[in-house]
Amino acid sequence: MKVSVIVPAYNAEAFLHAALESAWNQTIPPDEIIVASDGSTDGTANVARGAGARVLELPKGNGAIARNAAAKEAIGERLFFLDADDLWVPTKIERHLAVGAPLILDNAQPFTDSGESFSWLGGLPVSGELPWRRLLNHKAWPSGSGFSVLREAYWGVGGFNPELTKFQDVDFWVRCAAHCGTFINLPEVLTRYRIVRGSVSKVVRRHEQNLETMLSGWDFAADSDKKKMRALADLLAAEFLPWPDALRHLVRARSMVANRYYWKCVLGSLRRTIGRTA
Question: Does residue 200 come out as left (phi exceeding 0), alpha (psi in the -120 to 50 range) or beta?
């Protein structure tokens, strides 16, 4: 089976070479790597070509548009996605190919350049075939580099939603798992997720618009599923906002007040408030 690795990149020259090296240095190397440069103005394209990747130089759009453009050009029957600042464990492609299901997720270990350590992992600590509703849980999400998908399944749901600037990965996983019936989760850490302060995934911007755009495409989901996702999304926003900005999100997510994650987000917001006023 041919494998294509797709790397969306915007001004990523600082980290890109290491990411591409981790993709090429697999126990089963990919057949190609495509770097979709999303309007980059730095040396991203030169770094990518120097590392042996194909380059698509695109006008500035967003990560979803870049991923879809590269997927259209890909030769692989199985598509892997690697964010330009993340890294892979050398056995990642081998493990995914051994399973072969339409949609496969794995676990991600967060790290920073400063050596900061984290006690949490992204992804579920269970293995096997799971229903799509298991993805309505922030603990189920690895990173944008923590999954692979068969090309047929990717286009079976139209790829990534280009209207989203947030929730792109979660939206795709949920829609694809619902379309396929299930997904496979691998509990091993096969992805290393770089924490970059102020990255798109951590910036609260156009929250409500993105959330409603995402849920409008979930015609397979019950109202209770959408309610759960709204509450979870509000907690994710609250964790990265100071008071009083976080308060309206916490009020809307009050149905999760008995969940430990609710209080984690309250504490996260309070820390940001204290840090801003110190």
Answer: alpha
